[in-house]
Amino acid sequence: MNFSEDLTIALKAARNAADVIRQLSINHRNLDIRYKGRNDIVTEADLEAEKVIINTIREHTDGDSFLAEETEGGNELTDARTWIIDPIDGTTNFAHGFPIYCVSIALYENKEAKTAVILEVNSNEEFYAEKGKGAFLNGEPIKVSPNNNPSASLITTGFPFRNMELLEDYIELLKELLQRVQGMRRPGSAAYDLCCVASGRCEGFYEYGLAPWDVAAGSLIVREAGGKITDWLGGQNWLFGRRLIAGNKGVHDFLLKEIKDHFKKVHLSNG
Length: 271
Ligand code: 2AM
Ligand code: CA
Fold this sequence. Notes:
Elements: H1 5-25, E1 33-37, E2 40-43, H2 44-60, E3 65-68, E4 82-89, H3 91-96, E5 102-109, E6 112-120, E7 125-130, E8 135-137, E9 140-142, E10 154-157, H4 167-180, E11 183-185, H5 190-198, E12 204-208, H6 212-224, E13 228-230, E14 243-247, H7 249-262
Parallel strand pairs: 3-4, 10-11, 10-12
Antiparallel strand pairs: 1-2, 4-5, 5-6, 6-7, 7-8, 8-9, 12-14, 13-14
């Protein structure tokens, strides 16, 4: 497979960031932690890693735009080439030394994902995809799970941590799923959840309260692995719409129906 120069740049940036994160994780109990909001933290590792990613990309490109969690936030995308970056997806895990956290880098152009890399720092797994070229894990092609049967499926989600307005509906849905599926997991990094869908480690994933940098790369990796991504109404407003469902087709459609049935307030909240 002939990959683009952009993928090489994204991989180099992700590896450089992972080096910085690993270095700082040695002493994670002494990290300088700041609160951006309730339960929403940023560490010096997030800031350093983001700097390294942007500098690496700038060394190899000219005039590209950035949408990055810590320094270049925003809530819209133009048609320009835009790198959407989460230096650490799973910062709460990182700050506790709990081993699932990822560097996530995506390149969008004309509002469409072209290239995506997610590197899980502890396992050193590199998930990546380019539009129309398939999805890969450490160089090997990956595909979503062929198991479309909800009762034999493993489902990941993220617990609500900021917007508690939808909490009751969330718990009702969880209650239902715990009785209908084989197992539920909460890894703590949406980027990683999407990689698990893409590589068939789980059959589906859903969450609300998501930021564009949590899902920009993972959604391309899922689609290139043959999976389906929608928002909670079955539409395509998932990059800025904060709510996403991913899965193989059968389990995605099952989750969409369950969410529609249980989230009575889904139209009323923007969390
Ligand atoms: P972050 O580590 O980049 O902030 C979805 O669960 C996303 O919400 C996570 O990927 C995580 O991304 C973010 N998040 C922020 N604060 C969180 C918290 N207290 N618990 C879980 N996820 C949190
Ligand atoms: Ca982050």
